[in-house]
Amino acid sequence: MDLAKSPIVDGTSEELFALANAIAAVVGGSVAVEDLDRRVLAYSALPGQPMDDLRRRGILERQVPDDEPEQRGQYREVLAAPGVVRVPTLGADEMPRSAVAIRAGDLPLGTVWAIEGPAATDPGGRLVPAAERALLDGARLAALHMLRRRSSAELDLHAREDALRDALNAGRPAAEARYRLGLPARARLALIGLAPLRVAGREAPPLVRLAAAAARHWAAVHADAAVTTAGRTVYVLLAELDPAAVRRLAEQAVATLGRTFDTPLRAAFSRSADDLAELPDLRSEVDDILRVTTAGPDSPEVADLGDAHARVLLAHVADELARLPRLRHPGIEAMVAHDRAQQTAYAASVTAWLDAVGNVAQAAERLAVHPNTLKYRLRRARELFGLDLDAPDVRLSCWLQLRLST
């Protein structure tokens, strides 16, 4: 491909290439206009413009290479920033760049990336005002151009996205939200939430890219679905489906989108409801489930409240104990502190005994101690810390506190 020419590819018109050239004429280096999936929609083609291998590969492949985790962080920073962002180079051969998000209101559409030419910065190394204005104005014009090329179906999806976000936050009356979402009066509703599994040392895909891919996926498999994002979660509202069908669609979405991003995802789906005013409660239910299922790899990929009830309940009890420390049993606090100071194992012994439902032999085996040793520790725990382990309610409250402190 001759990089000095600006072809019309994949429906991108010559206007966007002309805009890239106009920005490059001010900033001095090669300019690329990208969508949210980092596809290169247009690029500048001015003679002699500075260009590095990363830009050249992006143009030739029509896709920016996704080689570095730090690069994904840069995209997140650019899409979150209100103005121009100067990004650090990630390799010895990479040229310095400035970038700006393309937005229509609060709707992200893509990004503009410009390699900085010699005249783009002042003697202090700051981006000169003319270059910054060229990027900001170029992003605004690119947004208008990209919106013109969006189909009416895509614009309808965006309207439904806004309507669902408002409904999740109880931002409008239920009747108005129902009209905006195109739902019948007493539709049977279910909410799905999708979020990346939290993995230490592994960066999750940017939410904006996950949301865009999820919107395309649901448009293909269930055209009536409404999709939106909030926090780190993609929400999908489905109507007139039984729980088995909702679970099946959630499993399909986790498998498909997980492969797309090579990232493990978790999905949670709510109970059914026929009143749109219940949507904030359905969201809370989904959020509760995702809170525990995204925390560890042993959690189910797709779950409803029944699948995760115990962990959800324990999470709420932990919240309450953190909010009101006075609810903690003082004997448990004293026992944990004694173990820490004296290197004893009373808390572990009581926990093992409670986990074994009072079976001393089983608990002793788990602890790798003699049953008589465990009996001694339990007796001393009663004496030293005032734990009445013969009372069922005390056993339950002690187990909860010990279970949540480990």
Automatic annotation (TrEMBL):
Pfam families: HTH_30 (PF13556). Residues 348-404 form the PucR C-terminal helix-turn-helix domain. It comes from the Bacteria. This is Helix-turn-helix domain-containing protein. It comes from Kitasatospora herbaricolor.
